[in-house]
Amino acid sequence: MPSKTIVIVNSNGRQAASLARVASAVGYNVRAQLRAKEGVVAQELEGLANVTLVEGSLEDQSLIARLFVGAQLAFINTTFWGDEVAIGRSLAEAAKKAGIQHYIYSSMPDHSIYGKGWPGLPLWAPKFTVENYVRQLGLPATFVYAGIYNNNFTSLPYPLFCMELQNNGTFNWKAPFHPDIPLPWLDAEHDVGPAVLQLFKDGPRKWSGHRIALAFEVLTPLEICAAFSRGVNRPVTYTHVPRIEIKVSVPTGYREQLHGIEVLFGQYQAPYFGPEISAPDEARSLWEGHRGIEEYAREVFPLEEAANGLTWMN
Fold first, then answer.
1. DSSP code of residue 249
2. Which of 31, 50, 210, 297 has the fewest CB atoms below 10 angstroms from its CB?
3. For residue 93, with 0-12 CB atoms within 10 Å meaning exposed, 13-18 middle and 19 or more buried, which class applies?
């Protein structure tokens, strides 16, 4: 039975909660930080064996100072709550001081570094800055790059991944991604946990310094819609549009991210992770039991839609 302690931050997020569930189930001690013990995910984590919740903000230096003490492993996915770069640096410094043996950071690319005129996406570039700082500190670290979440799809009118229900009962997805250019996909809740746990088992001797694309399928928008159609057993079409429709209020930072996606992937058709990282071979070598988009559409999407009060599946 494992006796090591894994520190996980922002534990009510999809990536972090996935790891907490799996690590708890196989006997790791999990120290799970979250901003507040609110919501169904926090309640679930609190009921898991071997999980200790640490409530508080990552802007609290005293919390960060004690977060890693006595732990051996860490999975860190910083977010836009607060100054992401400052928080990322503080976490890495505290982990190094505590002697963390393997530090896995959920990063993303900064496309602006490649000299092709590509913009850096505002919600991704800070993660790349943090990654570089982690490398400078000399932590035994691995960097995972998450593909597009299957769970992003919804028939609610949210931008970019709205599967809009049509009057005839079909679905239509509108986005700026070229219909024939492959994109990386990930069922974060189902597959992040097992993959990251395998990285910890293999250890930094194998994976230190590596960037790994956490994406188990690489499919074009047209292929996604075909798989989704098989899953929900009704037609699903794709419409390539230059602009992302925004029908609801979104934070300014996310609006800027959406505009950047229009330019980076719509106009420039840049590779999702940049030119240096490919998928899905390494992810599949870590975890063979991934849930693809067709299975997600068939088994999970209707449940999530029902939880949002939708009834099209009845």
1. -
2. 210
3. middle
